[in-house]
């Protein structure tokens, strides 16, 4: 079942000298529920731009993005914020945890915006996700008291706390050593599978891409004509 559809999506930015620069073009692309796909391409090819479009923090210059039957490009900001908070989890390269909040509080902060559960159930789910991430004894630690790999595990728990349909990860292991990176990838793929979320992971690392069900490159996305309508 289709989770996400892009039709004739173009993103342009205006350069300082006033010229328009096309940074991303996707004639047609679909992602199914529960799929796990690597998005590959060199630095600067538009991977982050695509993730930002999919979670609605950037709007397309033209074209249409449909997530769970909702057309993102025409949604009001407030509705888009609600949809993002409840249905999209985001894992950054640099973790982006709140520095003054404990591991548990970081996860709960995401639940406060996007969850329909009671406060008690939110707490239970947050603690459960952190335990599954191997952080059962770190709930009350601040980010600076955690290793890089542990911080990324907290970020993964935060991204999943509202049971999103879509999990976006932007170079999630790029700042980790190879062994930690492999374990974080395992957690990411395993928890996406366990929660039924589709996972779209940006990477320039072929080894990370190979862990996913399939890979698609930014170049392929741009080259695929809308009329062909391949998934
Ligand atoms: P990647 O994630 O593959 O490294 P990005 O999506 O970050 O690529 O960037 C794609 C291109 O878009 C780059 O050339 C970048 O400079 C440009 N770009 C991204 N955001 C902006 C912006 N806000 N204003 C102007 N150019 C941008
Ligand atoms: P990083 O370099 O750490 O991977 P990104 O370049 O992906 O970070 O993110 C750029 C900015 O967009 C960040 O400041 C981040 O806070 C914001 N952002 C990205 N995704 C979301 C989201 N789902 N909700 C709120 N803010 C977001």
TrEMBL record:
PROSITE patterns: ABC_TRANSPORTER_1, ABC_TRANSPORTER_2. It comes from the Bacteria. Pfam families: ABC_tran. GO terms for cellular component: plasma membrane. InterPro entries: AAA+_ATPase, ABC_transporter-like_ATP-bd, ABC_transporter-like_CS, ABC_transpr_LolD-like, MacB-like_ATP-bd, P-loop_NTPase. One of its GO terms (molecular function) is ATP hydrolysis activity. Residues 4-230 form the ABC transporter domain. This is ABC transporter, ATP-binding protein. Keywords: ATP-binding, Nucleotide-binding, Transport.
């Amino acid at each position: 079942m289709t989770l996400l559809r892009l039709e004739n999506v173009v993103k342009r930015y205006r350069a300082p000298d006033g010229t328009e620069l096309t940074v991303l073009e996707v004639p047609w692309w679909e992602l199914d529920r529960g799929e796990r796909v690597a998005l590959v391409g060199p630095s600067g090819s538009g991977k982050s731009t695509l993730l930002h479009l999919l979670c609605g923090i950037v709007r397309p210059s033209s074209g249409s993005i449909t997530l769970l039957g909702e057309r993102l490009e025409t949604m009001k900001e407030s509705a888009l914020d609600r949809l993002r908070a409840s249905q999209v989890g985001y894992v950054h390269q640099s973790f982006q945890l709140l520095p003054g909040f404990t591991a548990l509080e970081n996860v709960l902060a995401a639940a406060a915006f996007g969850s329909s559960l009671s406060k008690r159930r939110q707490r239970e789910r947050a603690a459960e996700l952190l335990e599954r991430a191997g952080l059962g004894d770190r709930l009350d630690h601040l980010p600076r008291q955690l290793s890089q790999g542990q911080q990324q595990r907290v970020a993964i728990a935060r991204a999943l706390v509202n049971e999103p349909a879509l999990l976006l990860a932007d170079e999630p292991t790029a700042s980790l050593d190879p062994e930690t990176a492999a374990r974080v990838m395992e957690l990411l793929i395993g928890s996406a599978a366990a929660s039924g979320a589709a996972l779209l992971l940006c990477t320039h690392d072929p080894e990370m891409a190979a862990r996913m069900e399939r890979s698609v490159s930014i170049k392929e996305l741009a080259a695929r004509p809308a009329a062909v309508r391949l998934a």
